[in-house]
Amino acid sequence: MTVNLTPTQILAGVGVMLALFMVWRWSARKARRAADAARASSRVVSLAGRVLFTGAAFTGVQWLVITHVHNPTLVLVVLGVPDLIAAYVLTRVLTVTSMDTTSTRRRGGGHP
After folding, report:
1. How many Cα atoms are found within 13 Å in the side-chain-facing hemisphere of 71?
2. Residues 7-26 pLDDT 10s
3. For the chain, percent helix, then strand, then coil, each to nearest 5?
């Protein structure tokens, strides 16, 4: 069995394959962008949940100690430790130690 194709049919087949490849590439890029956006938003939600949980835990422990314990040293410790943790975290967040950028390589030169 032999297949006899004309040059026009071969060119049309190559064109269709190229078009399919371009659509596949475009959809893969779009899917990657959507996944990156979803990942970034889930990080924010996850961070917000952890912050709220930790804040509620600190507040609950402080409320229990202040209302049920009559030891001034323990009350000062319970009120001071979360302040020290918050100061440490804020100092780390606000201190720039490195430039964290996503490396996007663009065609046409420039820095990577």
Report:
1. 8
2. 888 898 889 899 998 988 88
3. 75, 0, 25
